[in-house]
Specification:
Keywords: Membrane, Transmembrane, Transmembrane helix. It comes from Kaistia geumhonensis. This is Membrane protein. The protein has two domains: about 5-245, no CATH class; about 250-315. The protein is built from 13 helices and no strands. The protein is mostly helical and about 325 residues long. Helix 1 runs antiparallel to helix 2 (about 45-70) and helix 2 (about 45-70) runs parallel beside helix 4. The chain has helices spanning about 10-35, 45-70, 80-100, 110-120, 130-145, 175-195, 200-205, 210-220, 225-245, 250-265, 270-285, 290-295, 300-315.
Amino acid sequence: MNEAALPRRIALIDAWRGVALVAMMTYHGAWDLAYLHLARIDPSGSMPWRIYAHVIAGTFLFLAGVSLVLATRSGFRLEPYLRRLGMIVAGAALVSVATYFAMPQGWVYFGILHQIALASVIALPFLRLPPLLTLVVAAIVAALPQVFRSEFFDVPALWWTGLAPLPHNSFDYVPVFPWTAAVLAGVAAGRLAVSHGLDRRLAAAWQPKAWPGRLLAVAGRHSLAVYLVHQPIIFGALFLVAQVLVPDAAVDGARADCVDRCVAARADEVGCHAYCRCMFEDMDKAGLMRPMLDNALTPADMDRVRGMALTCTAMTLPTPAPETTAPMERGETPPP
């Protein structure tokens, strides 16, 4: 088949990517609401939310593999490939720099753009290998971190591998193992689709006529730009809402969380309200409220907060708890 006979874009693939973008926006919006204490939800820790996030990330990576195949159907052209790769690398660098300065406690050192960029290089040999072999390698990549991790990889220069015993804090962490498996699965699926002429049939089967479909397809065609601009817009709008309409939302949300953890440990709601009121008053006087809300307490700060917790416990909840509770996180007030 000559190059002219090949469909340049497949609207259905673009729209699929557009749907993934909408899903990503809903997740990031929920995350922003939680981060700004505008809603008491936990997208980072709740299992349904985590599954939702993984499905979204997996969809983008799978489609990245499919798109790599579609872009090289007529042969590999170095210049367009390097141009696309350079744009993704630049976007990944921008995300890292922006989050390092704006949110240093969880800056993105290897997020989904970093993964797409590296996987786009890793996947190149598989564009000519049998799809079945590609799927076998994908299964190995997905399974490896489940059976092998090592302290050797627990250094900053190797965190991107995903093979350290525990992941290091980041708001978007998509390491090579296991996530490259999704890109390789996309490559295998794309190879099989092209070999059976499915790409031509899909291109002819559907073209968006109504505005929702057209909008999704346009967004999917410009997914990198949408990815880079959506979060500043959503976060900026919600930040203004938090500052103007509910300026005390962060403190109120943190205090409510404090009461919930206290009640779980003590089963004394009246005493827990007194305990959390004592803690927040003491932290405010000590200038620790803002660092606590920003998850920026230093080890010395955390020692001071623990001392306040002992004092407030003695004043409001003199009866000791039957069991010791889990250690506090940096963004939490310690349970009594």
